[in-house]
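---------- Forwarded message ----------

FYI, see the DNA-binding response regulator record below. Original note from H. follows.
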Amino acid sequence: MPHDTAPPPAGTTAPAGPIRILLADDHALVRRGVRLILDQEPDLVVVAEAGDGAEAIELARAHDIDLAVLDIAMPRLTGLQAARELTALKPGLRILMLTMHDNEQYFFQALKAGAGGYVLKSVADRDLVAACRAAMRDEPFLYPGAVTALIRNYLDRARHGEETPDQILTPREEEVLKLVAEGHSSKEIADLLFISVKTVQRHRANLLQKLGLRDRLELTRYAIRAGLIEP
């Protein structure tokens, strides 16, 4: 079946050559099968294989890699433990979890550990290539059961009055975010909101910190997702 080969969106950095992948699974037969799936794609190449989480971290130190594909259940260090270590070691590294477990608890732990996607081994031949490309575009890749789990989790949190993502920002921060995303300068925002430039800059710094973002482009993307501005 054809795979999605859309280029990464503006503002993201794509590797100059093929996506370099570290593959970690404690079963050699599984690694061989996964490698066959990946290596037949011209834009994907497995450059290192590990048999457990600790070896994956050692290989990540020794190789230039763009993406780590990690099994969850491995000896020495699990894939979840390795993901946490790799996220700290190489902040720009993308991580996918490849697992036989259709399990909400593992899924949420994977997200917390820094994984950008969760692929079931049972459908790896269908989903893995698309998941790798999505990860490199900074897009999450979730199997249908994971999407259901996310929606149920969100609704449960809202039902119990817990803070949901659209309530993270204060009304004033939302105003500043909207104006930043629309391209206004700090001076223009200060004039529009009748506050000082220094206050605008403080709000902007708070927005970046609260949302875990780096620059105006990422703030703009967040504002679009939050429905504050139209794409």
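H. also flagged this: The chain has two domains: 19-155, 165-225.
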